[in-house]
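Data card: per-record layout.
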Amino acid sequence: MAQPTLATPSIPERYNASLLLDENLDAGRGDRPAIHCGEEQVTYAELFARACQFASLLGEIGVGRGERVLVAMDDCPSFPAAFLGTMRAGAVPIPVNPFYGAEEEYGYFLDDSGARAVVVGGACTEVVIPATGGRVDPARVFCADGARDGVADLWSSTAGLAAEVPPADTHRDDPAFWLYSSGSTGRPKGVVHLQHDIRYTCETYARHVLGIEETDTTFSTTKLFHAYGLGNNLSFPYFVGAATVLLTGRATPEAVFATVARYRPTLFFSAPTLYNALLRADDGSVDISSVRVCISAAEPLPSEIWTRWKERHGLVILDGIGSTEMLHIYCSNTGEDVTPGSSGRPVPGYELKLVEDGEEVVGPGVGDLYVRGASALAEYWNQPERTQDSLLDGWFYTRDRYRRDDEGRYWYEGRTDDMFKVSGLWVSPATVEAALLEYPAVVESAVVATTVDGLLRGKAFVVLADGASVDEAELREFCSARLHRYEVPDVYVFVDDLPKTLTGKIQRFLLRDQ
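The structure for this 514-residue chain is written out next.
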């Protein structure tokens, strides 16, 4: 059953996404802090100047409208300056994961995108720079944290360039930026987004779910290169003139706690895996009283973690589902409507439907999830068949399995390629994993299909708390008391950790190969 949609936010026909910065200056917020990062603080006026200087630099080196610029750096003030500056010039920024350790990964991004320029910074610099060499049409490379290996320093290169330039006269439906998918099941796909997409997520999720205000300070443990982090720590705060905290380096529990204590954010964004790690690392002395609401996405949030977090800190976590393809969260719990374990209801501005065996599911039921909203991708770059398979009459096929209850809430059942049948009945790995997580000694789990005596059965990979000792019989008995018989795993494998993408998603396909 499709949900009522919000009227499309009014976005002018001629529109450039970098105008988020202009609007803050026009509102008199030029002296307000836009970014806190380590010892550095950057105001909106300073960020505007840096973005304009970067746009000027692209013009100087001949990067034209629609041409691509690879942005490979950890969260730092240079990231939003390069990202917004590229769009201001009419070019297309492509943030990529700065934590890859192989030169070949960045070589793939360069070849796939045909990037004309690269901005690099931080730990990945030593890997990215060699990847740019040896190409027929080499990209111009700039380093955001000092010249090295013959690569020019970015900000020395912009010295003397115009610090105020008008945005390119782009159409709201022109390409604005790409984001690469996580690649949890293969090579990352280039997801093409348009100029109006950022504004649409601000007018929908940020306005109606977050209720974000100028007085807020955001902090996201998910990095800016990721769609979730880009909204949390760039689009949404800049939309209202709020401040944001950028954490350079890995978001370890220790680093997260120190950052919260120092900058006192009011909106905290993270993912279930890290919420779980934060709970385990909290010795009872952690103070997050500045936070008014916590948000979770990237993977389903088990109700057990939600409950422990609420008991520990007195804060609810608003769980939701989003994707790189839709740019941010399109189904979510809200402050007025929270049900632990569910993904909530459609965000105003988006429509959802479930499809089973080619027919739309009316009312409560289970099916493949489709979503429709104006922030959807335009295409997968150079993958017309995948684009055609995923965009159907204005609906995006998420490849997620969901259950809709009597009250219109959505409950995650698993990925379409993760689901499997036992005795002719569908098993949702998410349901089994949630049950396992209720066992006190279980820290994480992942369930996949395996074959036992020629029959399809469940196989659970289990991570135990330090020093814990549990045998298969105990877990099987525990699961049997909470699950249907066909859902109870037949095989249990105890492991030290689970394979994940760098954004924290479990790579079940690697477990299936074991």
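Known properties of this structure: The first strand starts at residue 33 and ends at 37. Residues 1-7 have pLDDT under 50 and may be disordered.

See the next section for split statistics.
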